Structures are given as C-alpha cells and as structure tokens.
C-alpha cells in the first residue's frame, strides 16, 4: 500500500475551540499548520444548541455555527483543515510520526493535541433522540434555559453534586438520580446537596426512559431494589456520569492521569515529549468550557512557536 508522506511544522489534532484557536495563532505566525478534525468536527459544541456564555456573542450562538466561524477564521490565515482521524503515532523519533485513517503519514516538527473529551451517556434511545432538546451533559452550559422549571440530574460524583447545586440556584426543583444507596462524591459536596431543600435525592434509582416527543416533558425511573417505577414531570434532563478524554491513541508515549487526561507541565501546554503540546479538554477535567479550551489552544500555539524558534537557533 502506498502511503502518502507529508512534512509539516505544526500538526493540530482535533477541531474544537482549542484546536481551532491553536490553528488561528499558528497560521498567523506563518507556521502553515495542518489540522485534522477527528471523528466529531467541531467537538462537543456541535451537539450543543445554544451557546450563551462565550464572550463576544451578545445574542448567543448555536454551537455548530460558532465552530464554523472558528474554522473559517483559521482557514482565512492559511490553516489547512482536513477531515480525518489520527489512528497511530510514534513520538519516539523526530520529526514526530502521525498516521491518519491508517493511510496518510505526517511527519511533524510539533504536534498540538486538542482531541477533547466525550461525555459519557446512559445509552438510552430517548436520550440520543432528545439530546439538545432538553437532554444535556453540561448543566453549567445549559441550565440557564430551564430557569424556574423542574429538572433531573443523573450521577453521584463531585461533578454531579456541583451541577445539582448549580441547577438548584436557578430551577424550582432538582431530582438527583443516584444508582446506589450512597454517593461517590466527597463528604462536603454530599452535605451540600443533602441540605439543599430544592434537591430531592432518589436513592437506588435508575432511568428507564426519558419522556417527550420533540422536547423532554418527563422521565420514568425505577427503584432497583423494589423494582417500583414512577414518572417525574421535568423539562430538563442532565447526565453527569463523567467524561472520557479522547487520548487513547497517545497512551504509549504521553503521560496521563488514571482517567486518561494528558498531564501538562504546570503553566504551559508542554507534555513529557518535546515538541508535543496538549490543550483543551484532553488535558482539562476541571473547567471544560469553550472559553478555557480556546485559551489553552492559544497557549499551545505560542509554546509550539517558541519551541520551533529555539530549534532553528540551534
């Protein structure tokens, strides 16, 4: 099989706010980056309908439209945006070797990893069908649309507790669906939700079906001890059972934490491999916002630019 081989100064892997911002900075610096979009061009924002918390869009913007704006801006300065999935890497040599779709080989002086993370879902058909129509994996992003309404959230970790508390500030009632008879969350977070009069915790409870045709209007849950089913009237259903960073392909070379998030040197986007940088949700499990991802994308491009300048001066 004839493999194409291509040589680039900056290769960007992933196309959310982090990847596109890195591309804007790198292309403006004359580094002629190539960006591969990955399996979900535009990243998690493409499954987010309204984005109202990104500065500069006073009337809000649809997630996919915003990513289209980012892409056009990167292309305007000369970024080559290509559809394709990185299927293999070899960071043991220089230039770094990256394989795309098992057929294109790219030799890159620097690699910026911005592959993001994917929300974990329950796996219900109704959850997929109503995604963006009342079903969301980000309370901080979408809670605002359910002000004064009743909502439910699934999860039992710190994130679920944090998001339930956030929702309780703006919604009239929050049902917290917890699968076991205890939570994984830290004690302080558990106390916070248990002492909040607006939050009702449903222990030993699982989701049977999210109800509604064009938008969420309820959820059917069952108690996994008594098998008793009941329906709750809600208009928003939030899933907070964790995220999975899309970093598997780099694991033989890049240091990660136990959850698979890439470790970067504090105050930078540098990884343990020289010339490989990581930004966005692939290395951030704390903030996970479009604006913070864009910020680290800028940092990664500047780090890569400095690295290349130092290489040329040697």
UniProtKB/TrEMBL annotation:
Assigned protein family: Belongs to the class-II pyridine nucleotide-disulfide oxidoreductase family.
Record-listed E.C. numbers: 1.8.1.9
Cofactor(s) named in the record: FAD
Protein origin, superkingdom: Bacteria
GO biological process: removal of superoxide radicals
Name of this chain's protein: Thioredoxin reductase
Pfam families registered for this protein in UniProt: Pyr_redox_2 (PF07992)
Domain (FAD/NAD(P)-binding) ranges: 9-297
Entry-linked NCBIfam families: TRX_reduct
